[in-house]
Specification:
The chain is of the alpha+beta class and 575 residues long. It has 19 helices and 17 strands. Among the domains are: 96 residues; 88 residues, no CATH class; 208 residues, 3-Layer(aba) Sandwich (Rossmann fold). The protein has a five-stranded antiparallel beta sheet with strand order 1-7-3-4-2, with helices on one face. The chain has a five-stranded antiparallel beta sheet with strand order 8-12-10-11-9. It has a five-stranded parallel beta sheet with strand order 14-15-13-16-17, sandwiched between helices. The chain is globular.
Length: 575
């Protein structure tokens, strides 16, 4: 019995030793494999490679999995092609569509990783019209109470603002007061409504219980409930956000009283008097003819598309000197045109999956603003940009494949990504403008500008050399793999907004009224337009950069004509 027990004990000791040895060998093999792969990546970054192979192959990046995201946010020479590529003898061959497609699949992978990190870390930006103010619990407006709110039939029919992260009572009051409104109302903790008429249907005080997103302890309405403030004291001290804008001299319609719903006859009428009257009536246009003041909207019968010679109208300060009868002076009041501000998700899933595709910096956000206001439906996004979501692009947070949005923003251009969509609006912008816009956005957000230090650093030439080819390959790949395309040039959309936007809306299979399109034109800029004054005459492109970009322009122009589309606008080529 003792011998049998001793043999069993000896056998178990051997098994223990064997298991320990196998475990140690397994761990050592794994460590050696990891070290070998790490060494491979380091060697690839340290040894010289041809310029079109400076980027890590996407498959290798996914396999190794140790690429530092900070490297993508501030790409150095190892990740972006050096400017010496501009002087390579085989430049002509590199500009072929085949080379562009293969090379830029790598760039696309890099930017996708950088984009997601950048948007998640980026601090949301201020909407135009909101000033940076200290959050205080003391509000200057007079609280009027809690009222019912219907987003489809609003009582406060003036301007609307969203800030889904930083809304405060003070922000809303200030924004409405600067636009000459008498009341400010807050709902859902993040939405601000302005108007000149106090809502009629009061609600119980406890129904306004939503805390302001940007101010703890303050109430910003509730679900379908408005916390309303009177702004009489605040309006008296508020400085207008912008002056009344002179729209021009126009031929007067035959019967102004039929076209405009509000009118005023006043001896010695001035622009200020007419603008104040129309602002109180909540109309965006003030029309002056002699001693007559008329208020209303741009309509089919008075579209403001064909202005008259300014000499036909005399005086912009004193309206009584304006030519009576045939022509009239038109001014834009601080009141927002709200006929096209209502938006919602599709009630049923869309049967056609539509992309709004563009190279970064080509005006995709602006196009989304126009489409949303023209159709009344939210647009989605392949990404998630918190700054856009916080300012009212609610489709940002919806899953991009939900089919609850009218179209989906994307900068992707791979075969797989393109073939997921049934059709696409392909938005193209002058590459010179696109590159500058994307560089500004990369370093200063949607509304800012890159600093002089950024422009003069090595990052700018590296950026141009890599992103210019991506601009070309983006168009080429959508032309090759896109199933049904509508090509829209940013410059044409800007110059002929109504006809081009109408074509886009028809492509999306949505019917809209002429008045709604005119409302979009009246609100054309949106909240993410950079001021063009700061860099109006700025020229950051060297001659080598221009030669490179011009080659890509010619390649894209030829490809568009080969697919029976109109070529690029003449202003693209060459500088």
């Amino acid at each position: 019995m003792a011998k049998a027990f001793f043999r069993l004990q000896k056998f178990l000791r051997r098994i223990q030793f064997l298991l320990f040895f196998l475990t140690a060998a397994y761990l050592m093999a794994g460590s050696l494999l990891l070290l070998q792969r790490t060494r491979l990546v380091i060697q690839q970054g340290s040894r010289g490679t041809p310029s079109n192979q400076d980027l890590l192959v996407p498959e290798e990046m996914g396999r190794v999995g140790i690429l530092d995201p900070r490297t993508l946010q501030s790409p150095g020479p190892r990740l972006l092609v050096g400017m010496d590529a501009l002087q390579e003898p085989a430049l002509d061959q590199q500009h072929s569509p085949h080379w562009l497609l293969s090379r830029n699949s790598e760039l696309r992978q890099l930017r996708r990783r950088w984009f997601h990190r950048f948007t998640s870390d980026q601090e949301p930006l201020q909407t135009a019209g909101f000033k940076v103010m200290k959050h205080t619990a003391e509000h200057k407006g007079t609280y009027m109470g809690c009222f019912t709110h219907d987003s489809r039939e609003r009582t406060l029919k003036g301007a609307v603002f969203y800030d889904l992260r930083k809304m405060t009572v003070a922000h809303c009051q200030e924004a409405c007061a600067e636009r000459a409104y008498s009341y400010a109302g807050l709902a859902f903790g993040a939405e601000c409504y302005c108007g000149n008429t106090l809502p009629a249907a009061a609600a119980r005080p406890e129904e306004c219980s939503s805390e302001c997103r940007g101010e703890k302890g303050s109430v910003c309405g509730g679900v379908n409930r408005l916390s309303v403030y009177s702004l009489e004291r605040l309006r008296a001290a508020a400085r207008p956000r912008r002056n009344v804008i002179y729209r021009g001299c126009f031929r007067a319609p035959e019967n102004l009283t039929d076209i405009f719903p509000a009118s005023l006859m006043q001896p010695n009428l001035t622009v200020e008097m007419c603008s104040e009257f129309c602002s109180k009536k909540e109309f965006p246009l003030a029309v002056i003819r002699g001693q007559e003041c008329h208020c209303g909207y741009p309509t089919r019968r008075f579209s403001l598309r064909q202005g008259a010679d300014g000499l036909r109208c005399s005086g912009t300060r004193n309206a009584s000197s304006a030519a009576g009868g045939q022509h009239c002076l038109v001014y834009q009041t601080p009141v927002q045109d709200t006929r096209c501000t209502d938006r919602k998700f599709l009630t049923t899933k869309s049967k056609v999956f539509v992309a709004l595709s563009s190279f970064p910096g080509a005006g995709n956000t602006w196009a989304r603003h126009l489409i949303e206001h023209a159709t009344g439906y939210y647009t989605g996004s392949y990404y998630f940009d918190g700054a856009l979501y916080n300012k009212g692009f609610k489709g940002e947070k919806d899953h991009w494949r939900s089919r609850r949005t009218i179209c989906v923003k994307t900068h992707e251009s791979g075969k797989t990504e393109i073939e997921m969509f049934d059709s696409a609006i392909l938005l193209i912008r002058n590459p010179y403008k696109s590159l500058m816009a994307e560089f500004n956005r990369k370093y200063a957000g949607h509304l800012g500008y890159a600093t002089d230090r950024n422009w003069k650093s090595k990052e700018w030439p590296d950026f141009v050399n890599s992103y210019a080819s991506w601009w070309a390959s983006h168009v080429l790949e959508w032309l090759k793999y896109g199933k049904r395309l509508l090509v829209v040039h940013y410059e044409e959309l800007k110059q002929s907004l109504i006809p081009t936007l109408k074509e886009m809306v028809e492509f999306l299979n949505v019917t809209v009224t002429e008045d709604r399109l005119l409302c979009v034109e009246n609100n054309r800029d949106g909240n993410f337009k950079r001021s063009g004054a700061k860099q109006k005459n700025f020229e950051p492109f060297t001659q080598e950069m221009k030669d490179l970009i011009n080659r890509y322009i010619l390649t894209v122009d030829e490809a568009l004509r080969g697919r029976n589309f109109s070529g690029l606008p003449r202003e693209y080529v060459p500088r």
